[in-house]
């Protein structure tokens, strides 16, 4: 009877086959996990930029932020500005300076016709001399009356009471006349002093060194008392005056730095806040602030009264995180500020700025290929290519990591399998 050979199954092979199958399953799972991680963490500019958290704006509203970036409207002013007036009025005889001319302190600016004042002064001086002569005569009469009274008083026994009383009366009369003459001298002296002051005021002089900003009267004009003749300013002491919204009250402080931009914003000046109004202006609800400009006023390209843009770096740093406001343009500076905030809060790679000055975000229009560039912003130049290469490195590294994981798993499975 034929016998069938039944192969002997080695019981030790069964556990080895189970272990190999388990290793294969683990490798497949690890490969799937690695592929998923690579897919979700690949270099996708849309995902990278949309996950960036911006710093909070610290309570500042969008309109106020826009105004802060554009700068506050200010006006250049001269700290020392005076209207030179005629104290007593009169007819202008001569104007000695021209518009825009530099003058020194005490320099004669204009002269008034003072013929009538000269005549009155001459009369007052003559009256003063007469009063002084009367005073001397009264003094002599008083001295004589006093001496006569003294003699009669010594001989009182030989004189009657009536004669003694008469001598006393003459003495008292002489004393009164002396006092009256002295009062007349004082009055005439005051009159002379007043006319001399009027004569001096007819010669109009500069109170301080500066520049003639306006001439209000010419030769032949008749001025009222106190009417201005010309305006003098100090161009070496230029300030800026601006109005700040009440929302910033308490944040603007003495000593804060100012950045002043003129005209097309291409020219920049520096300054410092010197005066802050203690209350809001009722009609506009704004806070008046004055700052001193560090640039000397001798610069002819600083016309007073010019409207300028004033930026406050301290407020920019506190509210926007931007400590260098007033760049090439307010919009461009705002873009760089936003990039700074993204750079601080993002844990991913550096963000490439697009040529348009935006933050390099392609607004979700990227192709999702992980190439590091979107359809709305493309790298330009060598610098952008380098930035793109740097941005591509994390994705390549993650791909290599996933491949190494699968290779290690396969090699481990081979070592365990028979």
Write the layout of secondary structure elements.
Blueprint: H1 13-41, H2 45-50, H3 62-70, E1 72-78, E2 81-85, E3 90-95, E4 102-103, E5 108-112, H4 115-154, H5 161-201, E6 203-205, E7 210-215, E8 222-223, E9 228-233, E10 238-245, E11 257-262, E12 267-276, E13 286-293, E14 307-311, H6 313-320, H7 330-345, H8 381-416
Antiparallel strand pairs: 1-10, 1-14, 2-9, 3-5, 3-8, 4-7, 5-6, 7-9, 10-13, 11-12, 11-14, 12-13
Order of helices and strands: HHHEEEEEHHEEEEEEEEEHHH
State the CATH class of the largest domain. Answer: Mainly Beta
Helix content range: 40-55%
What integer is the average pLDDT? 70
Kindly name the structural category: alpha+beta
Largest sheet: 6 strands, antiparallel, barrel
Give the second-level CATH assignment, the architecture of the largest domain. Beta Barrel
| CATH homologous superfamily grouping of the largest domain | Efflux pump adaptor protein, beta barrel domain
Number of helices: 8
- Oligomeric organization of the protein chains: single chain
Number of domains: 4
- Remind me, CATH topology of the largest domain? Elongation Factor Tu (Ef-tu), domain 3
If strands are numbered along the chain, what order do they take across the biggest sheet? 1-10-13-12-11-14
Shape: elongated
In what range is the share of β-strand residues?
Answer: 15-25%
């Amino acid at each position: 009877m034929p016998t069938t050979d039944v192969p002997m199954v080695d019981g030790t092979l069964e556990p080895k086959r189970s272990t190999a199958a388990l290793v294969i399953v683990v490798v497949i799972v690890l490969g799937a996990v690695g592929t998923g991680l690579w897919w979700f963490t690949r270099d996708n500019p849309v995902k990278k930029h949309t996950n960036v958290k911006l710093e909070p704006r610290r309570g500042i509203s969008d309109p106020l932020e826009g105004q802060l970036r554009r700068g506050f409207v200010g006006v250049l002013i001269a700290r020392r500005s005076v209207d030179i007036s005629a104290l007593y009025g009169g007819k202008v005889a001569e104007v000695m300076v021209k518009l825009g001319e530099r003058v020194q302190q005490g320099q004669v600016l204009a002269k008034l016709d003072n013929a009538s004042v000269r005549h009155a002064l001459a009369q007052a001086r003559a009256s003063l001399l007469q009063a002084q002569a009367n005073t001397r005569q009264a003094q002599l009469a008083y001295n004589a009356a006093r001496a006569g009274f003294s003699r009669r008083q010594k001989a009182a026994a030989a004189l009657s009471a009536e004669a003694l009383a008469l001598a006393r009366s003459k003495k008292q009369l002489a004393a009164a006349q002396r006092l009256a003459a002295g009062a007349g001298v004082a009055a005439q002296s005051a009159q002379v002093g007043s006319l001399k002051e009027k004569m001096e005021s007819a010669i109009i002089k500069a109170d301080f060194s500066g520049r003639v900003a306006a001439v209000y009267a010419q030769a032949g004009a008749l001025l009222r008392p106190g009417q201005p003749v010309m305006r003098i300013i100090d161009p070496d002491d230029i300030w800026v005056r601006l109005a700040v919204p009440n929302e910033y009250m308490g944040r603007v402080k003495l000593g804060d730095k100012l950045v002043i931009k003129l005209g097309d914003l291409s020219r920049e000046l520096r300054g410092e806040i010197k005066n802050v109004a203690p209350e809001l202006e009722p009609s506009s609800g704004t806070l008046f602030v004055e700052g001193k400009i560090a640039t000397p006023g001798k610069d002819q390209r600083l016309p007073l009264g010019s409207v300028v843009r004033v930026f406050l770096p301290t407020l920019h740093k506190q509210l926007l995180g931007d400590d260098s406001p007033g760049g090439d343009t307010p919009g461009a500076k705002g873009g760089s500020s936003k990039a700074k905030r993204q750079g601080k809060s993002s844990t991913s790679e550096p963000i490439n700025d697009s040529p348009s000055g935006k933050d390099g975000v392609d607004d979700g229009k990227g192709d999702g290929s992980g190439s590091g560039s979107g359809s709305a912003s493309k790298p330009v130049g060598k610098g952008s290519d380098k930035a793109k290469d740097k941005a591509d490195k994390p994705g390549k590294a993650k791909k290599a990591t996933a491949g190494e994981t699968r290779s290690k798993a396969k090699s481990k499975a081979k070592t365990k399998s028979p």
